[in-house]
Design brief:
This protein is an alpha+beta fold and about 550 residues long. Helices cover about 20% and strands about 30% of the residues. β6, α3 and β7 form a beta-alpha-beta unit. The relative contact order is 0.12.
Amino acid sequence: MTFAFEHVGPAPVPARAHEFRVRMRDGVRLATDVYLPDRAEPAVPAEPAVPAVLVRLPYDKNSRYVYFDEVAARFTARGYAVVVQDVRGKFRSEGSTVPFLREPEDGYDTIDWIVHQPWSDGLVGMFGDSYYGFTQWAAVASQHPALRAIVPRVTTVDFNATTQSGAPVGRPVWLEGIEYYAHYWVDQGVYEYEPDRTVRPVIDQYEQAFRAIGARSTWFDLLAPRFTDLFPARGRHPFDARPVPVLHCVGWFDNIVTPHMRDYTELAARPGWDAVQYLWAGAVDHENYRLADAPATGESDHAASTAALDRMLPGYVDPALEFFDVFLKGDRRAQELPKVRWELGHAEWRTDVSWPPPGAVEHTWWLHAQDGTLGPHAPTTADQAQWAYDPEDLVPSVVPNSFATLHSYPDLALLAAREDVLRFTGPALSGPLDLAGPLFLDLQVSSTAAEFDVFAKLVDVHPDGTMRPVARGEVHVRTDEVPDEVRVDLGHTGYRMRPGHRLALLLASSDYPLYLPASGSDENPWTTLAPKPSTQTLRTGGAHPSRLVVTALPEQP
């Protein structure tokens, strides 16, 4: 069998960028571009010297995908130097292609190089999304004294924890997340290919890819087929380091909004860190597509349209500029920054002193198995509902790429109509319901399988029957250790349920190919040849109620 793939290398360096090879403590040199305010030259002392914004990323600092030539222009126009670097082992940088482990030392050494440049005033901030949000946390752990503020966007301090976790209640195997390492972390470039989804065992499709490429991904091999967590090998945890001001930029439709919000809430409650935690939360996804534009069209897709990118950039960069103006330049007082700036989807932007907003209250919707409804009162009579898991007829993922949910902004109506998807629907709303805070499920659930998954989707049912996603969560459960009540974290959101709309909950036991199908047995799901079907039972009412809890703003009089 011939396995087709494309190897993607670095794009040309923009004319505005000054190229450097920055030497790390072990002699490895990292490719680094410096963008300076107009009329400044890298070898000439700047008058006045300027603060720097550092970005360390693995996605080719010169690619259209990260558009840093355009991003840098907005920073330099405000009087900042911008330093963009390919991390170790990626694109133009030297070194082994292994993520995470060397980022604290490399971050420290790069900051140290910056502060010794003639244009530097000795102050550094960091900015960026996803993995280049993680490199900010790694630099915080290194405790360089020049690092004064960070703006991590759609990210988390521990990416391994997003891919899977253990029994009795943990995370299903996020196949999409682990497959990322098989594409992006083999060597300096990127390998684009489509795995053969019909292959069993599942691990074999990736073995075929590595044989065709002639190289392997070290980090993929640590995660599959046996999970090995090397994150502790990074050393000091960032949250145990010296506190620095943080602007958490979160997307309500981001596929890792749940761990990012856990990072924010932990630091907002931690003495020493709490005073310098700020939150920006928009109705956007991981790739910065906006709910207001969903689904994306040719005119609104910033990945394809220059005009759309120009419209997107102010919302992407300006919150960081305002933050750095306070903590790097000192042009504004910290008291002028809102602690929380958040978007209520389908409504407007708001500011608050904390999250959830003061006055927000929990609303409980009880699941009624008898008629498939969500109601304000728990059913008094015990009942149950069941759904099947068939590994030969998996529930399909509603998006091909969960990093860009709002690009397609799918209608889940066909998914909800499947017999292996359990649905609970609330009443039509007479007025708006403004969701603003955490969401979760408490389920009384069991299975005929030794291990099973539960995938929950909270959806907005429109009057015409269209069903759009609002939030999601998932758990992996061992039947012999399952607690009476299984908590499913649905993350946080800011979202207006409009009058006439209904809140609905969908439950299933597969979501393929975003998640690895459960084996249904004690066999490893990566290597099993024959996953086992199962039946899941949800109990509702009586002594065993199941419920959905949402946080919402008080109703307006």
